Description:
Layout: H1 7-20, E1 23-24, H2 25-36, H3 40-52, E2 56-63, E3 66-73, H4 75-103
Antiparallel strand pairs: 1-3, 2-3
Helix pairs in contact: 1-2, 1-4, 2-3
Amino acid sequence: MNIQVPTVVLDGSVLAVLTKEDTYGYIITKAMQELLGVSESTMYPVLRRLKRDGYLETYDKPFEGRNRRYYHITEVGVTHLNEISQAWVDFRGAVDSLLEESDD
Length: 104
C-alpha cells in the first residue's frame, strides 16, 4: 500500500537532510525517492517553494565545468523544522494510540 506523503512531512524530511550538510538537488531527490518513494518531478517544486518561503537558500559551486546548485537550511528553516518535528511527535503518538486500540 502506498501512502501519499503530506507536504509538511516532505518539507520536514528535506529540511532534516539539510541539517546534516548542504547538498545539491539530485542528492536530496535521491534521498527522498529512497526513503519516501517521492518522484523527481515532485522534488524540485518543493525545493523552490522552501526557498521562496525563506527556509532554504542556494549557492552555486563549479563541478566538472558546470555549476551545481547547493541548498542550505536557514535559521528560519531550522525553526520551521523544529515545529514540524514537534507536530510529527504529536501526530505519531495519536496514530499509534489509535492503532494500539484497534489491536485489542
